[in-house]
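User: I'm writing a tutorial on reading structure tokens. Could you give me a worked example: one chain, its sequence, then its tokens, then a sentence or two explaining what the tokens reveal?
Assistant: Sure. Here is the example chain.
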Amino acid sequence: MVRPDFSADVVIAGAGPAGISAAVSAAAAGADCLLLEARETPGGTVRHAGIFSLCGFFPGDSEDTGLPAPWDTVLPQVSIPAGRMSIVPVTPWEFSRAAHDLLARFSNIRFLANTPLGRGMSIRARALIDCTGNAALARLAGVETLENPPASPGLGFVLQGVDTSDLAPGAMDITRVVMEEFRGFSMRIFPELAFDFNGTPSVPGMLNLPVSWALMHPRDLKIMADKQLDAVLGFLESRCASMRHATVCWRGHGVGQRSGPVIKGLGRAEFVEPPRDHRCEVKGYWPSEVWQDAAGASFKYLQTGFMCIPDSCLRAHSHLPFFAGGRCISAAPDAQGSARVTGTAVETGRRAGVLAAEAAALGETHDVRL
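And here are its predicted structure tokens:
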């Protein structure tokens, strides 16, 4: 027998919100888990692209704004209004530390950072879970995938020296000026999410890029996004009094994608009214979010307040016991916009971990060559 590169009852790829939740729930069910992450720290898009608020944990009109266990023990229990919904403010570094804390609680979870998947690798497992966000494990393992239309990518950053007293409500004057000067781009800054960065008041923001840029190679996309961010800020320096002394003190290590490949599942999540299966284990509370250009998303809400995501959307149409969580679950384009936000990713990851642990307890070991 050839010794595999990776071996465990359940192997999970991608240590973002979905992957962490999948590993924790599978480990809690008794499975020996291996969590693989291409980057040096856990946190996924929240950490590497720069997300400063977590969405979709609860409906906007809910009196219960508590986070699901075990995240409620490691993340702040504070929510603020965001349109018709509520969000949880958190910095990317807080989220990454929270992910570390959760993983450290389980002796049957091994976490390997700086471990990108590649062709020629071999995995021995009873069940696999893809939480990479781009169905990377599925494609390498020969599991069939589907491609959803691309959406506007985003690059997070942090500014210092912003005069927030001179900003219009919601900083919309910044958005308007950027859209007028830079066709196909928009930038938002969020003074309501301001925090101290190295002891200095700082304001997070997001640069939204043209949809066509989503098709670029990740390395080229990051280079182009950095150049565009510098150009936008240089222009705002001369046009907006509030930005005259603004400087970038941090920017995302990568560009966040809002859409991408999904597994071909036994079912497909759709944004429908009413839910087809009221008994579903996973409910997505974020509205349908479709980014057709960098100006922003169009939203659609359901009267029931949630989207039903049945188990059939989390299991691939494959001979392997193969599951997915987060953005690469089997979902239609309008449903993927709801599935990719943190709250829904946490819940789909959690459920995928439970299903994988059940499959591992009953099934045989598989040798998978990537």
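What the tokens reveal: The mean pLDDT is 93. DSSP finds eight helices and 20 strands in the chain.
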